[in-house]
Each structure stands twice: as structure tokens, then as C-alpha cells.
């Protein structure tokens, strides 16, 4: 890491996006933690046959990576607004793709090499997709080792767009237990990333 995550966490989203564009993976870690809840909340509003909510969250994180690489700080839109637009376009693309597949008999389907709906009109680089999904998987693995099973589960439901009350109902625990687990998870993550140095 070129900078400690503690120092990175003090930077604005736009500045972190610039660092991601220049290849700083740690800056993307910080942005991922900042935006995972928002992406999960947006993903909750979409559904498509053959896709789970986690698929939408992963697409949203790929959208975050794309937004980092294409954001122009000279535009009037904030980085958050730009991420929301990119993520929503990716989600809409999934829904449209699923609808097209459903509407066409499987015997008529022909595979095409390039689908330009993937990144808001841009074709998807398979290497970038693989790296972003790998990054997401590594982040989840790190969270699993850092948090207790309950903390991790509540955090993932929360990041998926549920309130702690909804997470409590789903897990069959009290709202207070879910809230405590969520607060412990947030504190552990914050302390963990603040303790990391070069």
C-alpha cells in the first residue's frame, strides 16, 4: 500500500476515485466499504429471473470500479450521483438481458461476443470483471475472518439493503441483538482499517 488506509479514509470520494484510476487498490477498498450499503440498497429495487441480489451487488461494485475510472471531477455531478447512475444502468441492463432471454425461445438464441449494455454503453473487459469480482471475494473473506458469524451475517443483510430490524426478523433474533451485531461489525472494520499501516 502506498498510503495507510487510515489516511485514505480521510480523503473525499472524488480523490479516492482518482487514486483508483491510477491503480491504488487500497483506495478502492475504502470506497467499497463506503458504497457497499448504498449499492445494496439500490440493488434491492431490482430483480431478474436467474439472478440473486448478490449478483446485483457484484454488478454494482463493478459499476463503482467503472465510475472510479471514468469520473470527471470537473462535471457538476457529485461522485455519489455518478456511482448511482452507473449502478442503476448496470442493474437495468441485467433486467433487460433477462427479459430478452425470457422472450426469445431458447432454440432461437445466438451467442454474441460483445454486449454493449454492460457498463453503461461500454463493452466489458473480461479481465476487469474478473479482477473486480476477485477483489469483492477477497474483501468478503477478510470480513469473514474479522467478524463473528452473526456480525458478518447481519452486516451482509444490511449491505444488501435490509434494515437491522428486517435482518433481525430474517435471522429470528431480537432487533437489539441485530443492531448490536451491526454496530460491533462497523467498529471492528473501522478499527481494523485504521490500524493498517504501510
Automatic annotation (TrEMBL):
Which SUPFAM superfamilies does the UniProt entry name for this protein?
C-terminal effector domain of the bipartite response regulators, Sigma2 domain of RNA polymerase sigma factors
The residue ranges of the RNA polymerase sigma-70 region domain are: 34-100
> Which InterPro entries does UniProt cross-reference here?
RNA_pol_sigma-70-like (IPR039425), RNA_pol_sigma-70_dom (IPR014284), RNA_pol_sigma-H_factor (IPR016371), RNA_pol_sigma70_r2 (IPR007627), RNA_pol_sigma70_r4_t2 (IPR013249), RNA_pol_sigma_r2 (IPR013325), Sig_transdc_resp-reg_C-effctor (IPR016032), WH-like_DNA-bd_sf (IPR036388)
Q: Name one Pfam family in it.
A: Sigma70_r2
> Could you tell me which Gene3D superfamilies the record lists for this protein?
1.10.1740.10, Winged helix-like DNA-binding domain superfamily/Winged helix DNA-binding domain
- The answer to whether the entry has keyword Transcription is yes
| Origin: domain of life | Bacteria
Annotated RNA polymerase sigma factor 70 region 4 type domain residues: 140-189
Q: Which UniProt keywords apply?
A: DNA-binding, Sigma factor, Transcription, Transcription regulation
Q: What does this protein do?
A: Sigma factors are initiation factors that promote the attachment of RNA polymerase to specific initiation sites and are then released. Sigma-S contributes to the protection against external stress, thus playing a role in cellular fitness and survival.
Family, as annotated: Belongs to the sigma-70 factor family.
Q: What is this protein called?
A: RNA polymerase sigma factor SigS
Q: Which organism is it from?
A: Ruminococcus intestinalis
Lineage here is: Bacteria, Bacillati, Bacillota, Clostridia, Eubacteriales
Amino acid at each position: 500500500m502506498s498510503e495507510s488506509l487510515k489516511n485514505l479514509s480521510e480523503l473525499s470520494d472524488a480523490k479516492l476515485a482518482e487514486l483508483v484510476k491510477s491503480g491504488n487498490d487500497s483506495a478502492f477498498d475504502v470506497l467499497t466499504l463506503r458504497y457497499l450499503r448504498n449499492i445494496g440498497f439500490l440493488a434491492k429495487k431490482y430483480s431478474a429471473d436467474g439472478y440473486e441480489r448478490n449478483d446485483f451487488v457484484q454488478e454494482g461494485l463493478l459499476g463503482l470500479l467503472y465510475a472510479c475510472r471514468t469520473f470527471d471531477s470537473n462535471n457538476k455531478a457529485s461522485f455519489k450521483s455518478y456511482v448511482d447512475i452507473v449502478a442503476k444502468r448496470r442493474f437495468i441492463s441485467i433486467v433487460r438481458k433477462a427479459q430478452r432471454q425470457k422472450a426469445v425461445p431458447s432454440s432461437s438464441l445466438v451467442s454474441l461476443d460483445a454486449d454493449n449494455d454492460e457498463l453503461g454503453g461500454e463493452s466489458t473487459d473480461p479481465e476487469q470483471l474478473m479482477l473486480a469480482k476477485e477483489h469483492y471475494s477477497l474483501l468478503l473473506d477478510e470480513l469473514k475472518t474479522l467478524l463473528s458469524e452473526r456480525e458478518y451475517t447481519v452486516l451482509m443483510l444490511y449491505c444488501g439493503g435490509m434494515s437491522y430490524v428486517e435482518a433481525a426478523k430474517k435471522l429470528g433474533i431480537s432487533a437489539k441483538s441485530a443492531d448490536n451485531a451491526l454496530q460491533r461489525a462497523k467498529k471492528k472494520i473501522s478499527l481494523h482499517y485504521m490500524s493498517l499501516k504501510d
